[in-house]
Write a structure and sequence with these properties.
Elements: H1 6-20, H2 24-36, H3 67-80, H4 87-101, H5 121-127, H6 135-143, H7 149-156, E1 163-165, H8 170-174, H9 188-197, E2 206-208, H10 220-226, H11 233-236, H12 242-250, H13 253-267
Antiparallel strand pairs: 1-2
Helix pairs in contact: 1-3, 1-4, 2-4, 3-4, 7-12, 7-13, 10-12
GO molecular function: heme binding; lactoperoxidase activity; metal ion binding
Organism: Arabidopsis lyrata subsp. lyrata
Cofactor: heme b; Ca(2+)
């Protein structure tokens, strides 16, 4: 009631950026995910610290992009309704709207989160799920946040958009057990394709997380995983559990879009600060 235009303002700004650079959609979705998994969805991933020991300085977060979109949306909101909308809410909205721009699913974003004042590099390292994790570890990571095995497999489907680099798969395709072998859970033809893109000393080249469909938000990721073409161990290991494997094998456009929306709403409520807790930051990179 106090800022009825809030969602429209954020959507307008997000559309301006993502329509010019569609690859930002994957980056902004990932940023929201990385925010919620560390101290809850409190905007702590956006903070900077004088000693560079904030979440954004942790190795898994060094490749985050799109901070400028969140800042631009926040600036536009501050002009219209100052001190009302938290950076945590802005990030949750931006992630949803960015996915919508590339014709992915839409989900409702309940608002009223407040911003945290603490951001620690070590928290990010301890809480973010690793691309090298097995299914047991991943299920525990998600359970710790109140998310179940279905949320795990559905949210892994976010890898249908976006890119990674050779650095994260090099060992997997060239020296998996230290004997110059590749990970046996990978399709040999996929390993050959990856070796063409990544030489043994290449840690920079870009790889699609959903080969052949990385710009489109669709269930193709699950088709790839079912064919043993998951880029990360954390993708391939979805076949190591009955529940997640069944989802991988049966996902289709209708079920995936609905399930993704449902799981994103759940994710957006993880450990949130409301009421008198936290604050409404004036600038997203700094506590008040």
């Amino acid at each position: 009631s106090k800022c009825p235009d809030a969602e429209r303002i954020v959507r307008r700004v997000t559309e301006q950026y993502v329509s010019r650079k569609p690859s930002l959609a994957a980056s902004l979705l990932r940023m929201h995910f990385h925010d919620c998994f560390v101290r809850g969805c409190d905007g702590s991933v956006l903070l900077k610290t004088p000693k560079n020991d904030a979440e954004r300085n942790a190795i898994p977060n060094l490749t985050l992009r799109g901070f400028e979109v969140v800042d631009a949306a926040k600036t536009a909101l501050e002009k219209k309704c100052p001190n009302l909308v938290s950076c945590a809410d802005v990030l949750a909205l931006v992630a949803r709207d960015a996915v919508a721009v590339i014709k992915g699913p839409w989900w409702p974003v309940p608002l009223g989160r407040r911003d945290g004042r603490i951001s620690k590099l070590t928290d990010a390292l301890q809480n973010l799920p690793s691309p090298f994790a097995d299914i047991k570890t991943l299920k525990k990571n998600f359970a710790d946040k109140g998310l179940n095995a279905k949320d795990l497999v559905v949210l892994s489907g976010g890898h249908t958009i976006g890119i990674s680099s050779c650095a994260l798969v090099n060992t997997r395709i060239y020296n998996f057990t230290g004997k110059g072998d590749f990970d046996p859970s990978m399709n040999p033809s996929y390993v050959r394709a990856l070796k063409k893109k990544c030489s043994p000393t290449d840690f920079k080249s870009v790889l699609e997380m959903d080969p052949g469909s990385a710009k489109k938000f669709d269930p193709h990721y699950f088709t790839a995983v079912a064919q043993k073409k998951g880029l990360f161990i954390s993708d391939s290991t979805l076949l190591d559990d009955l529940e997640t494997k069944l989802y991988v094998q049966t996902a289709n456009e209708v079920t995936f879009n609905k399930d993704f929306s449902d799981s994103m709403v759940k994710l957006g409520k993880v450990q949130i600060l409301t009421g008198k807790n936290g604050e409404i930051r004036k600038r997203c990179a700094f506590p008040n």
